[in-house]
Design goal:
single chain, five-stranded mixed sheet, three-stranded parallel sheet, 10 helices, 8 strands, binds adenosine monophosphate, binds zinc ion, binds fe (iii) ion
């Protein structure tokens, strides 16, 4: 008997952070649900960057495959010129405020990506719009993320790896990075709340500690993504304590991107069952027409 493949009551695992081809992952929404079954998950949320496109026709498939699918998203926001990622869960998926914010991000991404291409030309990197959209399956420049630029640079031989592309050109302080228009943390929180969802600060581990501490202090998050990717348990303790002290939700997820982040597998981190069920019930109330368990 394989422990990883066997769904047991005491092994309820819900990975609440992963990306599909609708943003910068390499698995389609259908494939990621199949992967969830393969690794023995009971629940999951697809949290593409700034888009709900993955949810367009997927609930009945998740249901058929026995996966509890919680509506979710990972919004890019800005605070003090830093990029902050905010997870929203359980909200009304067709709420106009969410649709409007996703549309605003499409516009931001398109302009930002054009500006990145311009910077690349200035740095004598011969990368075109076509090179980028080939990487994202012709879903349009407005849906491309920095990993698609990294792949294009790698294919053309400018860099040897995705991480080298981020270090030399695409990272937050690198010469070809452009952040694009600012959508604030507060506006993002307000949008998720308007649609009656829960607001979680994603991966506190990727920020400077002091910056992250101040964000948690200054904004009204419902929870923190305490369990993240391949983070070691002793590191999780810091943010676990911070969440406990403020009675915040503690969620978890892998941030699986398929081949874009080959060292991470789906289910590497997960959300405790009680927290998942809480979010799932909220999703049910907010989306009476969606097929849930
Ligand atoms: P974007 O939303 O287009 O700004 O791209 C952000 C995404 O780029 C993140 O979610 C990661 O998937 C990826 N990313 C950011 N920094 C790095 C890095 N240093 N190495 C690899 N991927 C990264
Ligand atoms: Zn990503
Ligand atoms: Fe993120
Ligand atoms: Fe992510």
């Amino acid at each position: 008997m394989s422990l990883t493949n066997e769904k047991q009551e005491n092994l309820f695992r819900a990975d609440l952070h992963c990306h599909t081809t609708c943003s910068d992952g390499t698995f389609t929404p259908y494939e990621i649900i199949q992967e969830a079954v393969k690794v023995g998950l009971s629940g999951m949320s697809i949290t593409d960057h700034d888009t709900m496109q993955a949810y367009e026709n997927i609930f009945s498939y998740a249901h058929e495959m026995g996966i509890k699918l919680l509506p979710g998203i990972e919004f890019s926001a800005f605070h003090q010129e830093e990029s902050v990622h905010i997870l929203g869960y359980g909200f009304q998926i067709d709420h106009p405020v969410i649709i409007n914010l996703c549309d605003k991000h499409l516009e931001r991404r398109k302009n930002r990506n054009l500006a990145i291409l311009e910077r690349m030309q200035q740095h004598k990197l011969n990368i075109s719009i076509e090179d980028i959209v080939v990487e994202n399956g012709n879903r349009g420049l407005e849906r491309a993320g920095r990993p698609h630029f990294a792949r294009a640079l790698q294919k053309k031989g400018y860099v040897a790896s995705i991480s080298e592309a981020f270090i030399r050109y695409l990272g937050n302080s690198s010469p070809c990075y452009v952040h694009g228009s600012f959508i604030t943390v507060q506006d993002t929180i307000d949008a998720i709340r308007s649609a009656k969802g829960k607001v979680i600060l994603a991966h506190p581990y990727v920020y400077n500690y002091q910056f992250c501490y101040e964000i948690i202090r200054d904004f009204d998050f419902d929870g923190i993504e305490v369990y993240y990717g391949n983070t070691l348990p002793h590191l999780e303790n810091t943010w676990k304590k911070a969440a406990e002290k403020r009675s915040m939700l503690m969620t978890g997820g892998s941030d699986f991107h398929g081949a874009m982040k080959p060292n991470l597998c789906l289910g590497a981190s997960w959300t405790p069952e009680i927290t998942f069920q809480h979010l799932y019930e909220i999703a049910k109330q907010n989306n009476p027409n969606v097929l849930f368990f």
